[in-house]
Design a protein that fits this description.
Length: 184
């Protein structure tokens, strides 16, 4: 497990479109996931201890964000040949087990992860209603262990984006396992 941190938010960077297969059998695009007040694009996987520590809190908080008009989608970018824990079948089980209220899609070619410059799992990209990046921070201070009563940084940022179109200027980078890139 190689620990990585995301870079500072590139405010205004425009969301990239994609067409990726979801665990329920349909193809999802950015437009399909888009919310009227913003969109949260999350790069996660099944096996990362950083994701596993926060997944239930993340699912709960995303459901709250969806109620205020934030769309959400989770993208699994890892090499599934060398990391079979992240296989499509295991993605289906993971989404069902944790009761995802958002699409969980696979980036088989890793082109979307590269287009977003995703670094780790979890990696959060919070866009406003104009599809401009406003948040590239963490869920909260939890790492491989859930921190009880942690300040909900992602929820606060996405709520601010929903209300004002702007994200907070002070953001703490997300950290997690490096994306498992396929050999060239």
């Amino acid at each position: 497990m190689a620990l990585k941190q995301t870079p500072i938010c590139d405010f205004g960077w425009k969301a990239r479109d994609f067409a990726l297969e979801g665990v329920e059998g349909r193809t999802w695009t950015f437009e399909d996931a888009r919310g009227p007040k913003g969109t949260l694009v999350m790069f996660i996987c099944n096996h990362c201890p950083y994701v596993r520590a926060i997944i239930d809190r993340l699912v709960e908080q995303v459901a709250d964000l969806q109620k205020i008009g934030i769309g959400a989608i989770a993208i699994m970018p890892n090499d599934t040949e060398n990391y079979p824990e992240d296989s499509f079948e295991n993605m289906k089980r993971f989404a069902e087990e944790h009761r995802f209220t958002f699409p969980y899609v696979i980036d088989r070619t890793q082109e979307v992860a590269r287009a977003y410059d995703a670094i780790c799992t979890p990696d959060f990209f919070g866009f406003n209603a104009k599809d401009e990046l406003q948040y590239r921070g963490r869920l909260d201070e939890s790492k491989t262990t859930l921190v009880p009563d942690a300040r909900p940084e992602l929820v606060e940022a996405m709520t601010m984006i929903a209300e004002t179109g702007q994200g907070p200027r002070a953001q703490t980078p997300s950290m997690g396992c490096s994306i498992k890139w396929r050999a060239a």
